User: Fold this.
Amino acid sequence: VCSEKNKLDIVFFGAETVFEQGELAAQQSGYATYYARKTDYAGVYTGEGLFVRMVDHYDFKPSACMIFINREFLNKNNIRFYPGILHEDNLFTMQLMKSAGRAMVLDEPFYKRLIRAGSITSGERSVKHAYGFYVCQREMLNYIGKSGYSMEFFTALMKHLDNMKKNALKNLVNM
Assistant:
């Protein structure tokens, strides 16, 4: 209803974290509040504007499970997941935001995020994790190079890419 009423391309919403096991909650304690946004994002934004604001407030969570996407918008912009890599949500979500003319955030936890043992999130790190981050970084730069960008968007993207680089390196160090 909100999407149709506001003619939105994408709508972000929150998630409630659920741990499969009690000891996992202690091991992965950062996920208890990971999906809670620190800032209010009331109103309609351009996707670029929302990306800039979310990155500036450390609220950008690239998870396709937490986005309602208008199918017509998705098909018109031919946005698809990059095949064969981990962390592909990073690229997919950035492409959505770069292309969206109208975006909104609902501060409601419409998704239950299960943290379970052995998943991509909680399992052992490998070169595959780092490789996924690096492919996403390369493809993000290719994508904006073809579509153009504002300086604000580029600055926010560089900040996000720096965080991705740190995550990739952490994955290599913690193997």
Notes: Residues 151-173 form the longest helix (23 residues).
